[in-house]
User: What shape does this take?
Amino acid sequence: MKIIDLHADIGMDVLKKHQEHIKDVLTTYHLEKLKAGDVFGVNMACFFSGDETLDVAYDMVEALHGEIVTHHDVHLVLDGKFKDDKLNALMSIEGMGFIEADATDFLKWAYEKGVRIGSLCWNDSNALATGISGDPARGLTTFGKRAIQTMNELNMVVDVSHTNEKTFYDILETSKKPIIATHSNARALCHVDRNLTDQQIKAIAQNQGLIGLNAVRKFISDDEAQQNALTLAQHAQYMANLVGYQHLCIGFDFMDFLEPPYGRNAMASDLQDASMSQNFIKALETVGFTKTQIAAIAYQNVIDFFENL
Ligand SMILES: [Zn+2]
Assistant: This one.
């Protein structure tokens, strides 16, 4: 079954390897694994933990954009249209700690470069928003609210995966467009701040948004023996029972190409890199989803979301 994966830190990998004078990173490190996993679309994230400069942000977006647009097997998704015979690449920004005040100019530039999804913070607190490691009483700032309005005007989707709860609800109140938690699971099944409460899951569904199932093992289960595709499928089942499978998608967050403490060992035992993606499809079957429901979760919900933006 074909898959669209809404989160992989490939932008970060491309810039790092370019700095080591390695060229054509997509071909050398990514495309074969994606193909082996029948991954038909992937959101390539430019990841920023919060202490980078604006120059690094420009460099990373440029580096990723350059690789995508010069590769004849890769299609940059700009208008919600996915192509059947290509690897479809979306571009996103994860964390904007490099913005010191108003984000408008940066967001407009990023949109021009092909970025269609953005999160204002990673786990950090910054000039725009507050991530899960920040003060629980601090949410979106005035600059952050303006950034959400600009993203709405540009049709750049707001990603809420790393926000604290205050920022999450501030964004929902501010955004006039559906939002996505690109890579977060259900907190009821694995109690970590990165996962979503039932109330957040319901709020995303009411907003016509999407939630991407995350294969990072510590977000699947506290019990190491359960950190696998089957337990991740149980997260999907739990959320589908709560709000319907129409709000689910995939955001595996594969990081096999990054240095420790990231790397393949951070992932579910049978979802360690993109080549293993079909193990999740099998697990969705095992927990009882129908073929139509699995196709929706695997790719169709994402296609519908972007077509209707
Ligand atoms: Zn992340």
Q: What stands out?
A: The mean pLDDT is 97. The beta strands are 3-8, 39-47, 74-76, 87-94, 115-119, 157-158, 180-181, 210-213, 248-250.
